[in-house]
Design brief:
The complex is a heterodimer of chains A (97) and B (142).
Chain A: H1 2-20, H2 25-44, H3 49-79, H4 81-96
Chain B: H1 6-32, H2 38-68, H3 71-98, H4 104-108, H5 113-141
The chains are: A mainly alpha (97), B mainly alpha (142).
Chain lengths: 97, 142
Amino acid sequence: MVELAMGIMLGLCGLGAGIALIAGIGPGIGEGQAVAAACEAIGRQPESKSAVTSTMIMGCAIAETTGLYGLIIGIMLIFVAPGIFSGVLRDTVLALK
Amino acid sequence: MNKVDPAVKKETGYIAAWVGILSLVMEAVFLLLRRWDLSVLAGNLAGGAAAVVNFALLGLTVAKAVASGEPDKVALRVRSSRTLRLLGLAGFCALCIGVFKTNVYATVIPLLFPRIGLAFRPMIDRRRGTDAAETEGSDTLD
């Protein structure tokens, strides 16, 4: 029974990590659209290229942080959460006995 | 070999400086909590380097995309670069934590340092603008 619970827990941690990484899709689409719009803007006003490039880099870096949160949560779920949850499970089983 | 856009160099330098400062602060916090060991230092170095390299690659991609002037292809290029960088970061962190046994927290926390640096950016720019205006004013008075 404990092995089954441990297996379910590990499986759910992996599933959660996979779901957390879905957060990386949104910023990618947003960045692509923003840079495409910046390209059009530079096409209209070529003299603003350096200012637009600098602003775009900063904007893309800020947008990318959302995906990084997902990545960090995924790493935590894979490397940290199983240890914590198995400890809780062990304590619960010992308390029940 | 293509020349690197000056904006990319400048912004990467700014981010690298912030990552360095915040890494020192993080090491100090680990020391204060008496949790410091070599795995923390290794994780911090790996995470900080990954954060700076990720930002530099982002900058290079954006600069190249903006210079290309093809809005249709640019969106796809940025999206694929983003996916590759995210997978690279995930793989690198998993390698460091899983194989080289670096501290998990010390490895992943530096990935967020560039965001903290960017949050302080408007404040620094405003101060620089004020300083420049004051200098110009004193020059005019002289």
